[in-house]
Amino acid sequence: MTKAWRPPMGWNSWDSYGTTVNEQEVLANAQAMHDKLLPAGWNTLVVDIAWYDPTARAHGYNENAPLVLDEYGRQLPDPQRFPSAANGAGFKPLADQIHALGLNFGIHVMRGLPRLAVERDLPVFGTPYTASQIADTSHVCSWNPDNYGIDHSQPGAQAWYDAQVDLFALWGVDYLKVDDMQTPFYSEEIASYAAAIEKAERAHGCEITLSLSPGGWVPTTHVDFLREHAQMWRISDDLWDRWSDIFQQFARLARWAPFQRNGSWADADMLPLGHIGLRAERGDDRQSLLTPNEQRTLLTLWAMGRSPLMVGGDLPTSEPATLELLANPALQEVTAGSKGNCEIIRERVGAEWGKDESYLGDQIVWKAEAADWADGTPSAHAGGFYAAIFWTGSEPHEFSVALQSIVGIAKASQPWAITNLWKGLETLESDARIEGEGPDRVIAATIPAHGTAWLSLDPTEPEE
């Protein structure tokens, strides 16, 4: 089967713990995912940045950090935070525990090689070359001081990534989030890392999903290159629990949705839901500041855009309502089994027609065809459609959308059953319904502030 045949669904430590997550916290989130979310499709745990920095702290990075490296300059987990990694065991013991729960294990790594390896002039595994000979000191990350870039004109350059990824494969890593790759867009580095993954997969008989970050200003003209070399790529910078951040993703996902393909996914970033900010880069310890309606809008938009879903909140200490949202089976159903996903309507709405100063918000409508999953799983709604009506205004608003705009003109006169895919989750659901007769019927709904009506439409036989 195609690697990453559906958009991955998982947990990433960044929004909760920044650079500081430890083994106990990772295992607690793995257990919570297994117990509460695995049946709904959530199956990947990712340890984000700086797992090799024993001086890691909340709210930033450390200059000249004493990174834990092996004799070839490859990063090793800090044994103080990850005790099972002691004595050179690396992440294998932790990966084994996560695999035993039926989950995949992922880690974050920065582009390039550690400055500390260059300063020590450590050898590149399997070559006569050293780190100082392959380093490119002009390609330095603007926001993280740990690494230098790699000069791929030098012999031994590819061998660095080959050796690094080979070690990760030996540990049992299933998922690699590789950062500082796309802003600016380092095509040579991306191709080199993808080649290292392919070599490790052949050597060890494994599969490793490659996720590229960050995503500022990534153009759709790169899509063929990205599909060739990665399974996921970010399309925005970091997203946090602010409505303004969510609002910006409408346009990005509308731009990228037509390019989504099984095995290759444009990624709208992590979901800042649940208990975040425990020791994160931004903000204080908090439950997500997004309202319940905004949280449903976020999840609906990501699902209709077929973005990967990587939640950032600490699962054991998140509110039950958050876990209930994440456990909605429609998230996996739509991301795994839909096609033709696209934004079909986006209109500014004002209190008075033609007067910009009376602007209230945007009405945005998405549609998709329900389809069986790529792994052969039948869809409960095959032959039907999914629709999402979004409202970006700050007060509830009544809308109607022509049924034929979702199901097509030829099918508009057929009988259709409508189901609210968020029904039963809290009390702020929309009241979507089909009104009227014949081909001119409409879907009518009162959409709450920053909210959505997320629907399935299924054909039914006419009543006798």
From TrEMBL:
EC identifiers of the protein: 3.2.1.22
Superkingdom per UniProt: Bacteria
Keywords associated with the record: Disulfide bond, Glycosidase, Hydrolase
Enzyme class: hydrolase
InterPro entries, sorted: Aldolase_TIM, GH, Glyco_hydro_27
Catalytic activity reported: Hydrolysis of terminal, non-reducing alpha-D-galactose residues in alpha-D-galactosides, including galactose oligosaccharides, galactomannans and galactolipids
Pfam family for this entry, one: Melibiase_2
Keyword Coiled coil assigned: no
Entry's family note: Belongs to the glycosyl hydrolase 27 family.
Record-given protein name: Alpha-galactosidase
Source species of the chain: Bombiscardovia apis
